[in-house]
What we know:
The structure is a homodimer.
Chain A: H1 6-13, H2 17-25, H3 33-46, H4 52-59, E1 64-69, H5 75-90, E2 94-99, H6 104-116, E3 121-125, E4 143-146, E5 158-161, H7 163-176, E6 182-186, H8 193-207, E7 215-217, H9 222-235, E8 240-243, H10 246-259, E9 268-273, H11 276-280, E10 286-289, H12 292-307, E11 315-317, E12 320-322
Parallel strand pairs in A: 1-2, 1-3, 3-4, 4-5, 5-11, 6-7, 6-8, 8-9, 9-10
Antiparallel strand pairs in A: 10-12
The first copy, chain A, binds a DNA duplex through helix 2 and helix 4.
Amino acid sequence: MQRVTRDDVARRAGTSPAVVSYVLNNGPRPVAPATRARVEQAIAELGYRPNLVARALRSTRSNVLGLVVPDSSEGYFTQLTHAVERAAFARGSLVLMGNSAFSREQEQRYAESLANMRVDGLLLVRAEIAGAAATESALDVPVVYLHHQAPAGSEAPSVVLANNSGGRLTAEHLLGHGYDEIGCLTGTARSGPVADRARGWTEAMRAAGKDEGNVLRTGLDRHAARADIRRWLQSSRPRAVMATADGLALDTLTVAAELGLRVPDELAVIGFGGTEAAAHSWPPLATAGHSFDDFAGAAVSTLDQLRENSPATDQILDVTLTTRASCGCR
Amino acid sequence: MQRVTRDDVARRAGTSPAVVSYVLNNGPRPVAPATRARVEQAIAELGYRPNLVARALRSTRSNVLGLVVPDSSEGYFTQLTHAVERAAFARGSLVLMGNSAFSREQEQRYAESLANMRVDGLLLVRAEIAGAAATESALDVPVVYLHHQAPAGSEAPSVVLANNSGGRLTAEHLLGHGYDEIGCLTGTARSGPVADRARGWTEAMRAAGKDEGNVLRTGLDRHAARADIRRWLQSSRPRAVMATADGLALDTLTVAAELGLRVPDELAVIGFGGTEAAAHSWPPLATAGHSFDDFAGAAVSTLDQLRENSPATDQILDVTLTTRASCGCR
DNA sequence: GTGAAAGCGCTAACAT
DNA sequence: ATGTTAGCGCTTTCAC
C-alpha cells in the first residue's frame, strides 16, 4: 500500500494539488470555504499526513533545531536539554540532539551532521572544552551558544548566565552568614562559566578581606572528584564551600554525609545552576541560577532573530539565589 | 552566496552528478580511482555538504530515529535517552526526541510529528499511561516500545526489563538479609513495569510466608510522594523497603535522612532501574537493572529488523542486582 | 479562487 | 566507467 500524497488528496477533493497546499499552509492564497471543506474531508478520509521532508526540501525550512550538549545525563545539561525541547516544541519545532561527550571533535561531527540535516538552527552547549571554535562559519546555519560564551573567532551570539556576578553573589551570601574559612570547589578549565563563577568568588573574598587561597579544582571524572573532595574536606577543613556547579555541590553533600560532617552546622554548602536535584537533596541545596525555560527560550528566540537577519546580541541572564538549608539558612 | 550543490561539484570535477553520488555513497556503481580523486578534491575545495533532506526525500530513508519519553529529566529516562542517542549515532542515525509529559495526547502529537518527519523508526517509552495504544498503525512507521510493554491492540514489538522476576529478585535479596517487615514502595499504575516489579515482590513475600500487605502506592508528583513516604515510614515502620524505581528509592533515602533514620541499620532500601544516581547517593543505593546501552541497543536493532520486514519479537532483558550499602550489604 | 508547472537537491535505473 | 534523466512530495509563482 502506497502512502497517501497531496496529489491523492487533490484528486479525491476534485481540486488541484496547489489548493491542497493552500489549505494545509493556510496560505499564501485564499481558498473558498466550500473547497476548503472538501479538501479537509479528503484529508481526513484518506488519513493524509504531509511529508515534512519534502516540505523542508522545498521551503528550506525544516522546523527542526539541532542541540549539542556535552552530556545529556548530567543534571544541569539534562534540564537545559529538556527546556530547549519544550521551547522548540512550543514554537513548532522538534529537536535533534547529540552528545559531544566534552570532545571538540565529537561536537564538530554532530554540528556537521546537524547542519547537513538542514536544521533551522544550531544550539551549541559547550563546557570545559578549551580552544578553537567549531568551524561553524562553514556550516552555513545559524548558531547560538548556550551556557558557554562563543569561542574566540566565532561570530555567533551567546546566551549565558551572569556567572561572575553570580559567583560573587553566592560568596557574599556565605560571607553574610559569618563563615570564616570559605573554600571554592570548581573545575579545571581556565575560562568558561565555571571559571567565571570562581572568579566572582575570588573577587568577593578579596573585597571582604578574606583568604581567597582555598580553591579545589577537580575534573570531570566523578569518582575522582569525590576522592579529591574527601581529601580536601579532611585536610583544609573549610567552614563553608561554594561549588561552581550543582553537581559538585551535591558531591560535596554526599562526601560530607560519608564523613559524618553535619551540613550546614559543620560545613555549609552552596551550589550553582539552579537544578531540580538541588531541591531534592538532603539537606536541600542552596543554589544560584536562572529559570531553565527562560534560558532555553532566550536561546531559541535568538536563533529566530538570526534567521530573520536581525542583529542578534549576546544575552547575559541574571542569576538569583535560592537559599535552602545547606547554606545555613532556615 | 548560494549553497554548493552536487551539480557544482560535478561541474568542478568535470564529471556528471551521478558520479558524485556514486563517490558519496560509495556505490551503487564503481568509480575510477582518478575520477574519485577529482570528485573528492572538488568536494573539499568547494566545501560541499550533501543535503540530507534531499537525500531523505529521494531515498525514503532519513537516518533519523524518533524517541518519545515521558520526561527526559527523570534519572531513568535521562539515561535511556542518552543511551538511545549513543546507539543511534553508532549506527549512523540522529535522534529527534520529544517529551510526552506522561500524557497520551502529547505522546500522540509527538508520534505524529515524528512520523511526518519521516523518521526511520519510532521508539516509544511509556510510563504510567493507562489505556489505549497510540494509533501507531496509521503512522506507517516502524514502532518499538521501550521499557513498557506495547499497549493492547498494538502490533509493535517491545524491549522491556524482566520486571516481575527482577521484583522477586530484589525482594528475595531483602528477605535473605533476614529483614522481617519488608514494605513495597511503588506507583499507582495497575499495569506496566513498575506494577510488574511490585507483583514480583508480592510473589516473593508470599512464597516466604511473609506479610505482603505493606505497600505504599504513590504518584508522579515528587513533593507529594516524599510526604507520603514520610508518613509511611513514620506509621508503618518497615525494616526494609523495596522501591520499584530508583527515583522512589532515592526519595526514600532522602526522607530517611530527614527523619534521622540510619540506612541500612534502621531501614534498608533497594531500588530498581540501575541508574547512575544510585551509585552516587549516600549511602550508595542497591538497585536491580540492566545496562542502558544494551537496552537501547536492543531497541535500535529491533527497529532495524522491522525495517527489513524481519519478524521482530518482544525482548525481555534480564535484570541483575547491584548490591550496595543501602540494602545492608557491606 | 483555482490550476499548471517549475523546481528544491538528491538517488538510481537506464543508457552508452 | 560514466552520463542522462525521471522522479521523491512539496511550495509558490504565474497565468487564468
